[in-house]
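General statements about sequence and structure are easier to judge against a single worked case. No coordinates are needed to read the tokens, only the vocabulary itself. The sequence in question and its structure tokens are set out directly beneath this paragraph.
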Amino acid sequence: MELEDISAEVRWELATKTAQSLFVNYGLSFWTEGGKEVKYIADFLNLPVTSTIEVSKSWKIIRSILMGRCDHKTLEEAEDHVIDCFTSCPILKIHEETGTATRNMPQLCQAHSKSAIDALNPKYNQHFTKRMCKGDAYCESIIEIK
């Protein structure tokens, strides 16, 4: 078998799963530093990050590239904030598949997301009001002006 014999979709799925496993198994500083790297990706892809809405949309694209797709819908979109509801999480799925405890997941995910949003545009902040990894039915993320 040669690399070319493996479809791009299968390679992508394997690479994503491997990257997710790294996120699951490393600590807070890894997640925080990883969040800072999203600015490089946004710049490389020429993604806009000058408004709350642009930051939110760009973060969704980058997060899907890095961690896999999340099922989500935007609940509210305004000039000063965006509220999103996520009903699936590829990182939580990895925890479930590997039997890894989720006790540190809320802090790690928050550190990564907050760091990512700050890197994309330091005028904005991100926090969660609901989290599936803490037993909620969905995650609710708010990106807003600091």
